[in-house]
Amino acid sequence: MQFFLDTANLNEIREAAALGIADGVTTNPTLIAKEGGVDFKKHIAAICEIVQGPVSAEVTTDQADEMLRQGREYAKIAPNVVIKCPLTREGLKATRQLSDEGIRVNVTLCFSSAQAILAAKAGASFISPFLGRLDDIGENGLVLLSDILEIYRNYDWDTEVLAASLRHPVHVIEAARLGADIATMPFKVIDQLFNHPLTDKGQAQFLADWQKSGRK
Ligand code: E4P
Question: Is the pTM of this model over 0.85?
């Protein structure tokens, strides 16, 4: 399973890259807005300099024609830019066209198996089911992820399943258990994956014993 970072913060992306676990990056308009008044295209270019894998840049319109215009423009920023289109009728029209032009599309805001099937039929390179947001309304995001993976395994579609809106380590572990191609997560969740009190305690003990033994 590949690890994507779900952030537009350059320091977090650099830190995850230094840890060797940033296979890609997903951004969205909310994450870009958090970075203040940055120039969107320059910011995506800066991310693409840090991470070699897919970097999602999201369109910001409801109309397919404008999505196409933005998508074609953003795709020129760097070869690893992937265009994020919403799972709407207009979004899937744009997905079909961009895919036909050889531009990779990550279809975002997926909340049902039916939508995931449509995205694959439209030629999406990635489908992003939002687990955490389903959990937020009392549904089970992991059930949706499992259903999509089961359906996709029946066909030779090229669409990779990108588990998104992950909120905690259990989401990541279960996404891996189910066989998601990719998990995208905030830096905070990556950090939580490392933590175990027995690791901290054991390491402190080893260092203390080494020092006590008089070795340098
Ligand atoms: C995915 O590409 C989205 O940017 C993201 O996972 C949304 O997560 P959220 O529900 O925590 O905002």
Answer: yes
